[in-house]
Design a protein that fits this description.
This protein is mainly α. It has a domain of about 60 residues: Multidrug-efflux Transporter Regulator, Chain: A, Domain 2 (Orthogonal Bundle). The protein is about 70% helix and about 5% strand. Strands 1-3-2 form a three-stranded antiparallel β-sheet. Helix 4 packs antiparallel against helix 5.
Length: about 130
Protein backbone atom coordinates (compact mmCIF):
# COMPACT_ATOMS: atom_id res chain seq x y z
CA UNK A 1 0.00 0.00 0.00
CA UNK A 2 1.25 3.46 -0.92
CA UNK A 3 2.20 5.65 2.03
CA UNK A 4 -0.34 8.26 0.90
CA UNK A 5 -3.11 5.64 0.98
CA UNK A 6 -2.82 5.37 4.77
CA UNK A 7 -4.81 8.58 5.25
CA UNK A 8 -8.52 8.24 5.89
CA UNK A 9 -9.45 11.31 3.81
CA UNK A 10 -7.87 13.84 1.46
CA UNK A 11 -9.03 17.38 0.87
CA UNK A 12 -9.58 18.76 -2.59
CA UNK A 13 -6.59 21.05 -2.03
CA UNK A 14 -4.31 18.11 -1.23
CA UNK A 15 -5.37 16.33 -4.41
CA UNK A 16 -5.02 19.41 -6.61
CA UNK A 17 -1.47 19.87 -5.32
CA UNK A 18 -0.53 16.21 -5.61
CA UNK A 19 -1.80 15.82 -9.18
CA UNK A 20 -1.17 19.41 -10.32
CA UNK A 21 -4.76 19.91 -11.46
CA UNK A 22 -7.42 22.50 -10.70
CA UNK A 23 -10.34 22.16 -8.32
CA UNK A 24 -12.52 22.65 -11.40
CA UNK A 25 -11.05 19.45 -12.91
CA UNK A 26 -11.87 17.45 -9.80
CA UNK A 27 -15.38 18.90 -9.68
CA UNK A 28 -15.85 18.02 -13.35
CA UNK A 29 -14.96 14.36 -12.67
CA UNK A 30 -17.33 14.45 -9.71
CA UNK A 31 -20.12 15.95 -11.88
CA UNK A 32 -19.47 13.17 -14.41
CA UNK A 33 -20.00 10.62 -11.64
CA UNK A 34 -16.46 9.24 -11.90
CA UNK A 35 -15.56 10.06 -8.30
CA UNK A 36 -17.90 10.44 -5.33
CA UNK A 37 -16.33 12.21 -2.36
CA UNK A 38 -17.91 12.19 1.07
CA UNK A 39 -19.61 15.47 1.91
CA UNK A 40 -19.34 17.11 5.31
CA UNK A 41 -21.38 20.26 4.88
CA UNK A 42 -19.78 22.09 1.96
CA UNK A 43 -16.49 20.25 2.37
CA UNK A 44 -15.56 17.39 0.06
CA UNK A 45 -13.53 14.59 1.61
CA UNK A 46 -11.89 12.10 -0.71
CA UNK A 47 -11.17 8.54 0.36
CA UNK A 48 -8.01 6.70 -0.71
CA UNK A 49 -10.17 4.89 -3.29
CA UNK A 50 -11.19 8.29 -4.74
CA UNK A 51 -7.51 9.26 -4.92
CA UNK A 52 -6.63 6.03 -6.77
CA UNK A 53 -9.59 6.58 -9.11
CA UNK A 54 -8.49 10.14 -9.81
CA UNK A 55 -5.01 8.83 -10.64
CA UNK A 56 -6.61 6.27 -12.99
CA UNK A 57 -8.76 8.96 -14.67
CA UNK A 58 -5.79 11.27 -15.21
CA UNK A 59 -3.74 8.44 -16.66
CA UNK A 60 -6.60 7.55 -19.01
CA UNK A 61 -6.84 11.17 -20.16
CA UNK A 62 -3.06 11.30 -20.75
CA UNK A 63 -3.39 8.19 -22.91
CA UNK A 64 -6.11 9.89 -24.93
CA UNK A 65 -9.18 8.04 -23.65
CA UNK A 66 -12.51 9.86 -23.55
CA UNK A 67 -14.50 10.31 -20.35
CA UNK A 68 -17.00 7.73 -21.68
CA UNK A 69 -14.21 5.18 -22.24
CA UNK A 70 -12.76 5.82 -18.79
CA UNK A 71 -16.21 5.39 -17.27
CA UNK A 72 -16.77 2.13 -19.18
CA UNK A 73 -13.46 0.69 -17.98
CA UNK A 74 -14.03 1.88 -14.40
CA UNK A 75 -17.59 0.55 -14.22
CA UNK A 76 -16.63 -2.86 -15.54
CA UNK A 77 -14.47 -3.46 -12.46
CA UNK A 78 -17.56 -3.53 -10.21
CA UNK A 79 -19.73 -5.65 -12.49
CA UNK A 80 -19.45 -9.01 -14.17
CA UNK A 81 -16.97 -9.94 -15.67
CA UNK A 82 -15.14 -7.89 -13.03
CA UNK A 83 -11.45 -7.23 -13.02
CA UNK A 84 -10.68 -9.76 -15.76
CA UNK A 85 -13.21 -8.14 -18.06
CA UNK A 86 -11.92 -4.72 -17.12
CA UNK A 87 -8.37 -5.72 -18.00
CA UNK A 88 -9.46 -7.24 -21.32
CA UNK A 89 -11.45 -4.10 -22.17
CA UNK A 90 -8.51 -1.91 -21.21
CA UNK A 91 -6.20 -3.98 -23.43
CA UNK A 92 -8.67 -3.61 -26.31
CA UNK A 93 -8.91 0.16 -25.77
CA UNK A 94 -5.12 0.46 -25.58
CA UNK A 95 -4.78 -1.43 -28.86
CA UNK A 96 -7.39 0.80 -30.51
CA UNK A 97 -5.62 3.92 -29.23
CA UNK A 98 -2.27 2.56 -30.44
CA UNK A 99 -3.73 1.98 -33.93
CA UNK A 100 -5.13 5.53 -34.00
CA UNK A 101 -1.76 6.98 -33.03
CA UNK A 102 0.08 4.83 -35.58
CA UNK A 103 -2.28 6.10 -38.29
CA UNK A 104 -1.69 9.67 -37.15
CA UNK A 105 2.06 9.03 -37.30
CA UNK A 106 1.72 7.77 -40.90
CA UNK A 107 -0.43 10.79 -41.78
CA UNK A 108 2.12 13.17 -40.26
CA UNK A 109 5.01 11.48 -42.10
CA UNK A 110 3.08 11.75 -45.38
CA UNK A 111 2.27 15.42 -44.76
CA UNK A 112 5.90 16.17 -43.89
CA UNK A 113 6.96 14.51 -47.14
CA UNK A 114 4.51 16.64 -49.10
CA UNK A 115 5.76 19.78 -47.35
CA UNK A 116 9.32 18.81 -48.28
CA UNK A 117 8.23 18.47 -51.93
CA UNK A 118 6.53 21.88 -51.89
CA UNK A 119 9.57 23.44 -50.25
CA UNK A 120 11.89 21.85 -52.84
CA UNK A 121 9.64 23.01 -55.70
CA UNK A 122 9.71 26.56 -54.31
CA UNK A 123 13.52 26.52 -54.05
CA UNK A 124 13.80 25.17 -57.60
CA UNK A 125 11.46 27.84 -58.96
CA UNK A 126 13.30 30.60 -57.06
CA UNK A 127 16.58 29.38 -58.59
CA UNK A 128 14.98 29.45 -62.07
CA UNK A 129 13.73 33.00 -61.50
CA UNK A 130 17.19 34.17 -60.47
CA UNK A 131 18.78 32.59 -63.54
CA UNK A 132 16.24 34.27 -65.78
CA UNK A 133 16.88 37.72 -64.22
Amino acid sequence: MNKLDTKEYYTITELTREFDISTRTIRFYEDEGLIKPVRRGRTRLFRPSDRRLLKFILRGKRLGFSIAEIREIKDMYKETPGEEGQLRLLMKKVQERREELEQKRRDIEETLGELDQVDEACLTRLAELRVGS
